[in-house]
Design goal:
This protein is α/β, with parallel strands linked by helices. The chain is built from eleven helices and seven strands. Strand 6, helix 8 and strand 7 form a beta-alpha-beta unit. The chain is globular, with a radius of gyration of 18 Å. The structure holds adenosine-5'-triphosphate and magnesium ion. This is AAA family ATPase.
Length: 283
């Protein structure tokens, strides 16, 4: 079919792959997975950029950075990149916002201003869905990193649409219970809507990550098997059980890769195999 909008060309070999962690449901492990996956890539020598697209800013708070109320964040950068919103522009430069850690990982933090994003861009004529994508292009972020990891909010609004339009692939952490299916289906409907709009290429499904899998519950395996059947073709990554190691590491703002003890080896292995699976899909 003829279309005015051409799909994006696939990123070239030396351009960053963009991966988002998404689920409309809250508390399923999006931020935990995003943080540890970023560190898994960094440990393999990859240069990683993390973008926090959740107004709750949990991802940002996992990085050991000084907080201040007037710190500018992704919201200011996104608004500044929309010409029509000139009246709202602030003197915020990428270099003021981006935080460099000493682990091969940079972060563009979020802030509560981002909760007003949808309303702020409501009246513009430029495509509202493509603001994050254009921002990434304008600052040539793909050519500065090997991997860009985006942490998504537990919603379905314009922020989510912006993430889905900007990303090459999506990982879906979920808690395998009888409520999980609907949240996953809702977000996939948004992906299908984006595909139908033909304004950009559709992100790949990089697989589902069963999290907080309760091995003591008799029904757990049956529920997971049922979900696996209804979700269709995409990869089902190895399940994460309830692990005190996550609480312990995140409380110290560390990834599982920071710890040498044997308790962490299995989690490290799981994240490394996730990086391998994702890289294979996106290459
Ligand atoms: N496998 C796990 N074992 C133990 N604790 C976990 C596990 N996965 C996540 N958690 C904990 O559960 C809480 C919620 O996880 P997380 O913040 O990653 O979810 P989220 O999907 O990002 O939530 P939100 O939608 O609110 O952003 C966190 O305190 C996290 O440390
Ligand atoms: Mg989160």
């Amino acid at each position: 079919m003829f279309s005015f909008f051409k799909a994006n060309p696939a990123p070239t070999a030396n351009q960053a792959r963009i991966i988002a962690l998404m689920n409309q449901k809250g508390g399923v492990g999006k931020t935990t997975m995003a943080f540890n996956l970023a560190h898994a890539f960094a440990h393999q020598g990859k240069k990683v950029l993390c973008i926090d697209m959740d107004p709750q800013a949990n991802f940002s708070s996992l990085f050991d950075i000084p907080t201040s109320d007037d710190r500018k964040n992704i919201h200011h950068l996104l608004i500044n990149s929309v010409k029509e919103l000139k009246a709202l522009h602030t003197s915020t430069f990428l270099n003021d916002v981006i935080i460099k850690t000493n682990e091969n990982i940079d972060l563009i933090p979020s802030g509560q201003e981002l909760s007003g994003f949808e309303l702020t861009v409501a009246g513009i004529n430029a495509p509202r869905q493509l603001i994050l994508k254009k921002f990434i292009e304008k600052f040539e972020l793909r050519s500065q990193y090997d991997v860009i990891i985006i942490d998504g909010p537990p919603t379905l609004g314009l922020l989510v649409v912006n993430i889905l339009c900007a990303t090459d692939g999506v990982l879906y952490p979920f808690v395998p219970d009888r409520f999980s299916e609907q949240g996953l289906k809702n977000i996939q409907q948004v992906v299908a809507d984006i595909a139908e709009m033909e304004i950009t290429s559709t992100p790949k499904n990089l697989g589902y990550i069963p999290n907080l899998f309760d091995t003591r519950r008799k029904q757990a395996s049956t529920d997971l098997e049922h979900i696996r059947e209804t979700l269709g073709e995409a990869t089902m990554h190895e399940a994460f059980t309830n692990k005190v190691q996550f609480g312990k590491s995140l409380a110290q703002r560390k990834s599982v890769f920071h710890f040498k003890s044997n308790d962490f080896k299995d989690l490290q292995r799981q994240f490394v195999s996730m990086t391998e699976a994702v890289s294979k899909e996106l290459n």
